[in-house]
Amino acid sequence: MTSGKTAAIIVAAGTGVRSGSAAPKQYALLGGKPVLAYSLAALRGHPAIDRVVVVIGAGQEAALREAVGDVEYVIGGATRRMSVLAGLEALASSTGHPGPVPGSTVPHDLQPVGVNSGGPRHEAGVTVGVKIERVLIHDAARPFLSADVIDRLLAPLDAYEGAIPALPVADTLVRYDGMIGETVPRTDLYRVQTPQAFVFDAVLAAHRGWSGPEPTDDAQMVRDTGHEVTIVLGDPMLEKITHPADFAAAEARLAASMRSRTATGFDVHRLEAGEELWLGGVLIPHDKGLSGHSDADVALHAITDALLGTIAAGDIGTHFPPSDPQWRGADSAQFLQHAASLITARGGIIDFIDLTLICEAPKIGPHRSAMRDRIAALLQVGVDQVSIKATTTERLGFAGRGEGIAAQAAATVRIPETR
Ligand SMILES: Nc1ccn([C@@H]2O[C@H](COP(=O)(O)OP(=O)(O)OP(=O)(O)O)[C@@H](O)[C@H]2O)c(=O)n1
Ligand SMILES: C[C@](O)(CO)[C@H](O)COP(=O)(O)O
């Protein structure tokens, strides 16, 4: 692949009339997250992509910020083509690219690129001034974009000015005008998806010089200005959300892409006189309490580690180092909630927690219900998704001598493979 920077434009300035959604469909929730958030995360998370600009409708800054937080954005136009052009011009102007020639179709009122930081619009930080060599242009309405598709699209750009993902047509195709007419041979027909990848200068020139009928994608513009555009294998996950039923289909695709993961956590704390005994987020009357890092709630620590394990995010010490004085005496509920928030941020769902407390005393039975309620509330799951068991070690070892309490937890979550 040639050297130079790769940018991505997500067009999200449509109104989604056909979707029947009250708000533009790119802000509708899918699996609890805005549609736009999925492809934005996929593009931002891809190592070959240096910069992502989202094209939004006028007045959508607050909706954008609420949906995805800080992101570079530009205001789009009345058609998809004009929105793509706005994105291309934003990239061109911020990287010192020559401006459009007089008489081209570029409108004069294109907004400058901004960052949705809540403050005044400003130029986009470190990436401004870096020349863009390649660009991916993507519909926000196609949320489930995989890294494999991005890889497939970028690979041919050394040889072609463009590459698009497409799927062969599987159905019989027929012309219809009240009665069926000609059957259209389908052997070389493909359904075209996005993102579409281009050499930046080629697609910018095609857009700036366009005077043909309204195109339905960018590839046809690049092709019609004399460049070669190739096809790579698309992805059934990339179907566009267009009509109301497409939301249910997208939810089903998302659910089918969820993979179950189970991980365990283990922790021990010393029992000492003069300490409070916090277990499972509940203060338990006892003649001794647990000492150590934070409030030393061994149960919440074990569950936190189990949850972090499901996403291979290190352990509790990685996120809350015992050496950091700010966590001394801290409520362990915040550790647990942090681990849960990392799973939620990945579109994950917590399915089940199973905890075993290992101690001679206190008796866990009388407190089991309060602990289950508290843990379920902290994780925002049902009480029936939290199991708490207890055992002794038959007076053997540190637990048997009443010197400490051990906790062992297992967590099962579902994480979407499509990010
Ligand atoms: N003026 C427009 C029109 C469309 N798009 C974007 O282009 C993509 C594909 O368009 P489509 O599915 O047609 O979206 P809408 O135009 O929003 O839908 P509709 O035609 O039903 O109103 C979407 O991500 C949409 O937000 C855009 O950025 N600017
Ligand atoms: C760009 C596109 O997604 C490729 O299939 C499609 O052409 C967009 O069409 P729409 O009419 O804007 O939905």
Automatic annotation (TrEMBL):
Keyword annotations from UniProtKB, A to Z: Isoprene biosynthesis, Lyase, Metal-binding, Multifunctional enzyme, Nucleotidyltransferase, Transferase
Family affiliation: In the C-terminal section; belongs to the IspF family. Belongs to the IspF family.
UniProt protein name: Bifunctional enzyme IspD/IspF
Sites annotated Positions MEP for the nucleophilic attack: R186, K240
UniProt cross-references to SUPFAM superfamilies, sorted A to Z: IpsF-like, Nucleotide-diphospho-sugar transferases
InterPro entries for this protein: IspD/F, IspD/TarI, ISPD_synthase_CS, MECDP_synthase, MECDP_synthase_CS, MECDP_synthase_sf, Nucleotide-diphossugar_trans
Residue intervals of the 2-C-methyl-D-erythritol 2,4-cyclodiphosphate synthase domain: 261-413
Keyword set includes Metal-binding: yes
Residues bound to a divalent metal cation: D267, H269, H301
2-C-methyl-D-erythritol 2,4-cyclodiphosphate synthase: annotated span: 261-419
Annotated region described as 2-C-methyl-D-erythritol 4-phosphate cytidylyltransferase, given as residue ranges: 1-261
PANTHER family: 2-C-METHYL-D-ERYTHRITOL 2,4-CYCLODIPHOSPHATE SYNTHASE, CHLOROPLASTIC
Binding site for 4-CDP-2-C-methyl-D-erythritol 2-phosphate: D267, V268, H269, H293, S294, D315, I316, G317, T391, T392, T393, E394, F398, R401
Coiled coil: none
Pathway the protein acts in: Isoprenoid biosynthesis; isopentenyl diphosphate biosynthesis via DXP pathway; isopentenyl diphosphate from 1-deoxy-D-xylulose 5-phosphate: step 2/6; Isoprenoid biosynthesis; isopentenyl diphosphate biosynthesis via DXP pathway; isopentenyl diphosphate from 1-deoxy-D-xylulose 5-phosphate: step 4/6
Cofactor entry: a divalent metal cation
Keyword Lipid biosynthesis recorded: no
Function field: Bifunctional enzyme that catalyzes the formation of 4-diphosphocytidyl-2-C-methyl-D-erythritol from CTP and 2-C-methyl-D-erythritol 4-phosphate (MEP) (IspD), and catalyzes the conversion of 4-diphosphocytidyl-2-C-methyl-D-erythritol 2-phosphate (CDP-ME2P) to 2-C-methyl-D-erythritol 2,4-cyclodiphosphate (ME-CPP) with a corresponding release of cytidine 5-monophosphate (CMP) (IspF).
Residues the record marks as site: Transition state stabilizer: R18, K25, H293, T392
Gene: ispDF
Entry EC no(s): 2.7.7.60, 4.6.1.12
Chemical reaction(s) catalysed: 2-C-methyl-D-erythritol 4-phosphate + CTP + H(+) = 4-CDP-2-C-methyl-D-erythritol + diphosphate; 4-CDP-2-C-methyl-D-erythritol 2-phosphate = 2-C-methyl-D-erythritol 2,4-cyclic diphosphate + CMP
